[in-house]
Protein: GNAT family N-acetyltransferase
Organism: Candidatus Megaera venefica
Amino acid sequence: MNIQFEKAELKHIDTIFEWLRQPHMMEFWDNTQEHKDDIMNFIHGEKQHYFYGTTKYWIGSIEGELYCFLLSDILQKDQELSDVHRENMSKSGHTIGLDFGIGNTKFLGRGLAAQTLEAFMGFYCEFVDPLVDTFFIDPDPNNPRAVRVYCKAGFQKVGTYEANAGAFIGQASDLMVKRV
Ligand SMILES: CC(C)(COP(=O)(O)OP(=O)(O)OC[C@H]1O[C@@H](n2cnc3c(N)ncnc32)[C@H](O)[C@@H]1OP(=O)(O)O)[C@@H](O)C(=O)NCCC(=O)NCCS
C-alpha cells in the first residue's frame, strides 16, 4: 500500500473544503470559519491566528489518490494546557498533537485508518521533526470509531479534559497518548 503525505497546498484546497462538508466529517470535525481561515493562512504562508498559530495541515494520498486530512501542532510548556496534557508531555523530546479524518468516502470504513495514522507518525518523525517522541490525539468519547482506530494505532487513553478554545470549547474530550 503506497501511502504518502505532503503539506496542504493551494491545489488541495477545493478537495479539503469538500471533505470538510461531508456529513461524517461535520459530525466530529471543527467546522468553524476560524478553522477554515487558518487552513488558508497556512497554505498562503500568512500569519495564523487560531489556537497558538502554529498548526500545520497535511494531506495524504494512497496509490496516488488524495484521501485523508491531518493536522499537527507542537505542544509547549508555556501554552495554556490542561493538567492531563502537562502530566503526559514528553520530558526530553517534543510532543505533537494530531487530528485526523478520512475525507474521501471511497476509502472510509476500509480498515485504513490505523495504518494511515501510524504511517503519518513515521513520516513526521523521519521528515518533519526527529525530536518527537510523544503524540497526543483527543477524540470525542462519543466517537467510538475514532477511539477504536486510535487504540489500534497504539494510543492509550490517559484521561479526559475540557477544551478551553476552538470549536469544542467546554466539551469533554479523551486525551490519548502514543510514545514512539
Ligand atoms: C475516524 C476515521 C478516521 C476512521 O476511519 P475509518 O475508515 O472509518 O476506520 P477503519 O475502517 O480503518 O476502522 C474503523 C474501526 O472502528 C470500528 N468501528 C466502526 N464503528 C464503530 C463503533 N460505532 N464503535 C466501535 N468501533 C467501531 C470498526 O469495526 C474498525 O475496527 P476493526 O478494524 O477492529 O474492525 C473516519 O471515520 C473519519 O474520518 N471520521 C470523521 C472524522 C473524525 O471523526 N475524526 C476523528 C476526530 S478525533
In short: The chain has a mean pLDDT of 96. The CA atoms of residues 160 and 170 lie 12 Å apart. The domain at 3-179 is CATH 3.40.630.30 (Aminopeptidase).
